[in-house]
Write a structure and sequence with these properties.
The protein is α+β, with helices and mostly antiparallel strands. The protein is built from 3 helices and 5 strands; from the N terminus they run αβαββββα. The chain has a domain at 39-133: Beta-lactamase Inhibitory Protein, Chain:B, domain 1. It is flat and about 90 Å long.
């Protein structure tokens, strides 16, 4: 019985094996590119502090010198002298399409006296404050609150 059955040699040409290998390599490259597109991102929002900028502002420096070194502040407060605030936040998203997580948050405050000279420098970080959402992105739905007319309508209805 074994003599009647002949062993068949592979009749595929050599280029077929090469083509199969190329297809596998292309598929692996495509999978790697798709996974690389899903890697995390970092976002910098607000003021970007130049390297060594705070060292250039000594106590007693003028307000104009601060503007030259630091640039325009994010916001200014005028209560009890003047204060320049430079606000920045760095967030990251570990995987694409996920929520951002706050990694670092900086508020640089430069306090001035009445003569517009630097009185104090402060560098507040993430540990110095709390993160909270000013805009919760939710809209309250109506229909749950009761007005003074609701009991009157309930009395007049016949249900």
């Amino acid at each position: 019985m074994t003599e009647t059955r002949k062993t068949r040699k592979c009749l595929r040409p050599r280029w077929f094996a090469r083509w199969h290998g190329l297809r596998a390599a292309a598929a692996a490259t495509l999978v790697c590119a798709a996974l690389a597109a899903c890697t995390g991102e970092q976002f910098q929002k607000g003021y970007i502090l130049p390297q060594g900028a705070l060292e250039q502002i000594p106590i007693g420096a003028s307000q104009d010198q601060v503007l030259i070194v630091m640039g325009t502040p994010s916001t200014v407060a005028t209560l009890d002298g003047e204060v320049f605030y430079y606000i920045s936040q760095r967030t990251e998203r570990p995987v694409m399409f996920m929520n951002q997580k706050v990694v670092d948050q900086r508020v640089i405050a430069i306090y001035f006296d009445k003569n517009r000279q630097v009185r104090r420098l402060a560098n507040y970080g993430l540990k110095d404050g709390r993160i909270f959402d000013f805009i919760s992105r939710t809209t309250p739905t109506s229909g749950q609150e009761l007005s003074y007319l609701t009991p009157l309508f309930k009395l007049l209805s016949f249900n």
